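Dig into this one:

. . .
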Amino acid sequence: MRLLVFGYGFTGQALARRLKGEGWDVTAVVRDPAKIEGATAIGLTDRPAMVEALKSATAILITAPPTEAGCPGLNALIPALAEANAFPDWIGYLSTTGVYGDREGRWVFEASPLNARSIEAARRVSAERDWLEVGRGMGLTVQLFRLPGIYGPGRSALDRVRDGTAHGIVRPGQVFSRIHVDDIAAALAASIARPRAGAAYNLCDDQPAPSHEVNAFAARLLGRPAPTLVAFEDAPLSDSARRFWSENKRVSNALAKAELGWRPAYPTYREGLTAIHAAESGK
């Protein structure tokens, strides 16, 4: 079995590690093949190699974000799939819960209306629709996965506390959903085992929470003082950060649990950060 990952970043590598442990081969389509370890690397412009790899691909994961020209994965892979006459069992596209926009703290589900409030999220909406349309037109089994903030080893509140970039911004009623990268990999693997064409899943943990609480918990694990609390209105945020804070929603993972039999190993940030800290400490 072979996994082809278009954009071999944090999440793609997590899925690759999981499937390689089950005997899969992994091919990564990337900008610079020389920088890739642990997978067969193909350059973005190496069309013949991409076509050949797709002939034996069981599953395809697209992680690269869309640009003003659309989804680079779709633009590169669909012509190559047609040339290879390939029909993989599973195609997964990683999107964002930003497609839902602001819900003033209410719950969102996969059937909730999409109301993107940024250019980046609007491009994700377009990419989702393009992938689903191509899937229907070509008879491909395409699934969408909407992700909130992703954390894991080397990329968590623990690192932000250590380097001084964690903030104690408080906005009453504001919460964010998040997910450990290994829980994403587990959900994707579960979907590969149970593909459903046209499916969309929210992948997140069970407890949306304010970011200052997450940062304070990380500080306690490290034995450091929590970041100083500051009101949102007084926080020195960039325009992009302020747009991020303008969205407030609770994301439901009920559908992924029901259809995929998946449960997050780290149901809240507490379990996730505790496990990362223990691994870093060698405990």
